[in-house]
Write a structure and sequence with these properties.
heterodimer, A: 289 residues, mainly alpha, B: mainly alpha, 0% strand, globular
């Protein structure tokens, strides 16, 4: 998002060294962005190239390097959402910055969970022969995904920024209450029916060194990506809020501007109508007398 | 006035409105009944229906609950009644508790009717030794459902798109109730060879859920509607 409007560039949400130009990029985010690209390049090299294939799972084990980091970062993202929701709700300043951080983090977390679920389904098809298993972890993850889609829907309910912030802060905190309850119930539910299915990561306790390193690269790459996305998204949200406020101010200014240039004429018109009105009233009064 | 007294007044008001309008009897109960019938069309085999009857009872309860919650808050927002209550300085916790109790009473009636429907339509039997478990399950599950329904109903009240937002928020949240209540009722009815003692851990889950959401909802409701 680019703009040449000077006021929109003053929406810094804590970034450093903001450029004069428009947009949400700064030197800091650019460095993070470049680091993300490099780490992603490494991940591709190690994930697809250097790391060996698994004895049992063959090539499909390479999905691990995306599947596991994305869900870890998603959990991190939702934790950030919960903490910033609490910071907004219980904080004295009621800073909208916390609210925007919560929203941005939840959005990115939801996308990452979606990536985990899609990759997991593909991996499941390759290793178990089915896209989906009613395993406790899978079911909890799916319900968590839907819960945060609900959270994002609540953010779009409308109203003022403060209303949005308070509502979503409450839902953000309730979601934290909800997830453990869902997980507990789903685990109890599955334990009655079948043993937890063997998931790739658990089976490989004696993971190959290079595989472990590739996984580590994946975690670094996706952490950087999360950081980069969350900074930009928070800034874009700040701009959106500012644009909303400005939209109202502009509309008010436009209404005022319509009146001001013809104010002399308008006031003289008004005077004459008043005059007429008084005359009318006078005549009415006379009539009643 | 104490919170509990106000809560009782709010609950009585809600139930009186329901009684006078007859929407619950004339529309919600028939809706739940027809849901039970169309389940039978979808699962066209007596053995399957017998096996899954407890789950279908709770599914029908949850679908009907959405209708009840929408209605419970439609009567509050229609004339700005909720705002009027708040302006009058009524404790939001009392409003929450009152509305949750009214919703719970209706849900309990609904569940009993649906259980009878399951006995008649799906060939379920209610054994005597499972009766205590059944009653406690119904009450604890209803408390949890009413707590969640009232909380999210209050959140979505008065906004465009609330009809679609409510199920999206409610269903993931009440998933534990669906799981726990279904297993506990299976144990109480002896579905698929389940024994009564299997049901009690599930009741524990339902009670924890009801307490967590009851307390959370009572605390969160004030800030949610205070806008």
């Amino acid at each position: 998002m680019t703009t040449t409007d000077p006021t929109l560039t003053h929406t810094d949400t804590g970034g450093d060294g903001r450029d004069d130009g428009a947009g949400t990029g700064t030197r800091g985010t650019r460095i993070i962005g470049i680091a993300t690209l490099i780490a992603m390049g490494w991940l591709v090299a190690f994930g697809l190239g250097f790391s060996p294939e698994d004895r049992d799972q063959r090539e499909s084990v390479r999905l691990l390097y995306v599947h596991v980091p994305t869900i870890w970062i998603a959990y991190l993202a939702f934790t950030v959402t919960a903490i910033s929701s609490g910071m907004y709700f219980f904080g004295k300043k009621k800073s909208l910055g916390w609210d925007r951080l919560a929203g941005a983090s939840a959005e990115i977390g939801t996308v990452f969970v979606a990536v985990t679920l899609v990759i997991g389904a593909m991996w499941g098809r390759l290793t178990w022969g089915v896209f989906w298993q009613w395993d406790a972890r899978l079911t909890t993850t799916a319900l968590m995904f839907v819960t945060y889609i609900g959270y994002l829907a609540v953010r779009r309910l409308g109203g003022t920024h403060d209303q949005r912030a308070r509502r979503s802060a409450i839902i953000g905190m309730i979601a934290v209450l909800e997830i453990p309850l869902v997980h507990w119930s789903v685990r109890l539910w599955r334990s009655l029916h079948q043993e937890a299915t063997v998931l790739g990561t658990d089976g490989d306790v004696s993971m190959d060194g290079l595989m472990l390193f590739s996984l580590f690269v994946g975690v670094i790459a996706f952490s950087l990506l999360y950081l980069w996305l969350v900074i930009h998204r928070t800034r874009v949200m700040a701009m959106e809020d500012l644009l909303d406020d400005r939209g109202l101010d502009d509309a008010l200014a436009a209404r005022r501007a319509e009146v001001v240039p013809s104010s002399n004429q308008a006031s003289s018109n008004q005077a004459s109508t008043n005059q007429a009105g008084t005359n009318q009233a006078d005549s009415n009064r006379k009539g009643t007398i | 006035m104490s919170t509990l007294r106000i809560a009782r007044l709010v609950a009585a008001k809600d139930l009186r409105i329901e009684w006078n309008s007859r929407v619950f009897v004339n529309q919600v109960l028939p809706f739940a009944g027809v849901t039970m019938v169309i389940f039978a069309f979808a699962l066209d085999a007596d053995s399957i229906l017998q096996r899954v009857a407890p789950g279908l009872v709770w599914l029908a309860t949850m679908f009907s609950m959405l209708v009840l919650v929408q209605r419970s808050f439609a009567i509050e927002t229609a004339d700005g009644a909720l705002d009027a209550l708040r302006v009058a300085g009524v404790d939001p916790m009392a409003i929450y508790l009152g509305k949750a109790v009214a919703l719970g009473v209706q849900l309990l009636i609904l569940e009993v009717v649906l259980l009878f429907a399951a006995v008649i339509l799906y060939g379920q039997t209610i054994p005597a030794d499972g009766a205590v478990l059944l009653v406690i399950t119904l009450i604890s599950a209803t408390c949890g459902l009413a707590a969640v329904g009232t909380l999210y109903g209050g959140l979505a009240a008065g906004f465009t798109g609330r009809e679609t937002l409510l199920p999206l928020l409610t269903f993931p949240a009440v998933a534990p109730v669906l799981i726990g209540a279904t297993r506990a009722v299976e144990a109480a009815l002896g579905t698929a060879g389940a024994v009564v003692s299997d049901g009690w851990p599930w009741v524990g889950l339902l009670v924890v859920f009801a307490v967590a959401f009851g307390v959370g909802g009572a605390l969160a409701f004030g800030p949610l509607i205070d806008e």
